[in-house]
Amino acid sequence: MQQMNLGLREGPRVYTVGELDAKIRAALDEEFTDLWVAGEVSGTKEYGSGHCYFTLKDRDSQLKCVCFRGTLRYLRFKPRDGVMVHARGRLDLFPGRVDVQMIVDALEPQGHGALQLAFEQLKRKLAAEGLFEAARKRPLPKLPRRIGIVTSPSGAVIRDMVNILSRRFPGIHVRLYPAQVQGEGAAEQVCRGIEYFSRSGWADVVIAGRGGGSLEDLWTFNEEAVARAIAASAAPVISAVGHETDFTIADFVADLRAPTPSAAAELVICTRQELLDQIDAGGERLRRAMRLRLAEAARRLHQLGIDRPSANLHRRLGRLLQRLDESEWRMRAAARSRVETGARRLRHSRDALARLDLRVRLAAARRRMEILSGRLERRGGGG
């Protein structure tokens, strides 16, 4: 006998709240485990547990966020109401509720206001640790033999610095650690450069810097990692970032802040003439001290009733003066020898830098040729 279809259909799937929670949680774990979200911070609350809760919002919607204590201490800055940010993390459900929240593991400030906030927060943090104290800053060597520079290998900054150093003290030995100074990965490269000179012990002093730009352009030198690399350096570090009115976190940590990269090259070493003047001044001080000692000796002899020193005493005094003249001559000869020997080294460094700059330009030209070639091939294929 044929069965009749009474039009009955299977009922809809009915979930329990717990089942729905588990299903949504599984979907979030699969699709939204590592994402970036842009928005404005609002409703910030930090509890005694050390966890921080806030909301990201735009004109269309809102998203609850949490940053746990272990992550919060490593953020570039703490969230504050009204600040625009990019937050990285994963979506999850609030425990025991079907309520979506974002667990934040990174926070990047966006816009001048947010960057300024991050700057001030890091400045306060490092100052509290004593990294800006004058007592921990080291004096620069009076006459460094080898200068390490951490900056971009192309552009006017490195060329200007090398030219100034060669003009001020021909023969000074300079080594460049080429580093990206702007954009993603720049802070890591600058840190590696500072750490290279620190570990190798090659440089008597290190200059780390770049030319001018916006707050965003200079941000590499506001990174906590760069500040800590400078503080940990075995060699004294000069920060040379931007223009005279630009200040970065690196400036506060460095042993000396130069207003510009060119100024750093002026400050790091005296000129040859200044050195010779110092030698002359030192010789004059020695002669003055010797005259004072001779005058004092004559006074004592006079008190002892010996108005006419013996011929032997005259000879001894003559030999002392001759030794003084010979010492002065050797000091001058040694200084000139170092200047002349070093001039050859600087010419070698300058030639190497020129070759490096040429390779950078050739690589850029090759990339442009490849792009043009690709365009021509596509046009030829389309024809």
Briefly, what is this?
With 383 residues, this protein is an alpha/beta fold. Helix content is 50%, strand content 18%. The protein has helices spanning 17-31, 69-72, 111-128, 156-168, 186-200, 224-232, 249-253, 261-267, 272-303, 311-382; strands at 35-46, 52-57, 62-67, 84-93, 100-109, 146-151, 173-178, 205-210, 237-241, 256-258.
Please render the helix and strand layout as text.
Elements: H1 17-31, E1 35-46, E2 52-57, E3 62-67, H2 69-72, E4 84-93, E5 100-109, H3 111-128, E6 146-151, H4 156-168, E7 173-178, H5 186-200, E8 205-210, H6 224-232, E9 237-241, H7 249-253, E10 256-258, H8 261-267, H9 272-303, H10 311-382
Helix pairs in contact: 4-8, 5-6, 9-10
Describe this structure in words.
This protein is of the alpha/beta class. Among the domains are: 93 residues, Nucleic acid-binding proteins (OB fold (Dihydrolipoamide Acetyltransferase, E2P), Beta Barrel); 154 residues, Response regulator (Rossmann fold), CATH 3.40.50. The chain is built from ten helices and ten strands. Strands 1-2-3-5-4 form a five-stranded mixed barrel. A five-stranded parallel beta sheet has the order 7-6-8-9-10, sandwiched between helices. Helix 4 links the parallel strand 6 and strand 7. Helix 4 runs parallel beside helix 8 and helix 9 packs antiparallel against helix 10. The radius of gyration is 34 Å and the shape is elongated. The N and C termini lie far apart (71 Å).
